[in-house]
Amino acid sequence: MDIAAHLSDTLKTLRQARGWSLTQAAEQTGVSKAMLGQIERQESSPTIATLWKIATGFNVPFSAFIAPSQASERPVYDAHQGMTAEPLFPFDEQLGFDLLVVTLAPGAMSESSAHEAGAIEHVVVISGEVALQIQGVWQTLQAGEGRRFAADQPHAYRNPTSSPTCFHSLIHYPRSAIQT
Q: 178 Cβ partners below 8 Å, 6+ apart?
């Protein structure tokens, strides 16, 4: 199954399971009804930031949208803005976390809206350099360095270099926040 079909199927399944109309889903996620409809019809590929809003609004882990459980290969989601996210380990229900491999193109930046209340994120740079904005303050991390922060507030990632950068993002969701 391709990623557009998986996104479409996942969004429809979640929405129908809750008995939500597109309007109700838009209210819960902060993503427009038009965009949600386009995703369901496979007419649009959302950015990673938009996908985070949808996952947060539905209280599901981010990897639910990018990791088909029956896939033999780990899918990569390209956000059209110089950022890819690939589940290294899809959501672990028992431990309550996603572990993603994120790659930022040279000069790319991604702003992330707040995740579920109580979510904690760990960023560990594998190669290159990442500028990370937490509580409005930018800090630069080199390969081998990491930060843990409250992900239930807006934050951002930026690659200030002329080479791609890669980091692991482990998102830990509080048990009460995630519905599977």
A: 59, 60, 61, 91, 96, 116
* Residue 95 burial class via C-beta count within 10 angstroms: exposed 0-12, middle 13-18, buried 19 and up: exposed
Range of the domain at 59: 3-65
Regarding whether 163 and 101 lie in a shared domain, the answer is: yes
180 found inside a domain: no
d(CA 27, CA 32): 8
Of 98, 120, 1, give the one whose Cα is nearest residue 51. 98
Whether residues 55 and 81 fall in one domain: no
Does the pLDDT of residue 73 top 60, yes or no? no
pTM, to two decimals: 0.73
Tokens of 95: 């431990």
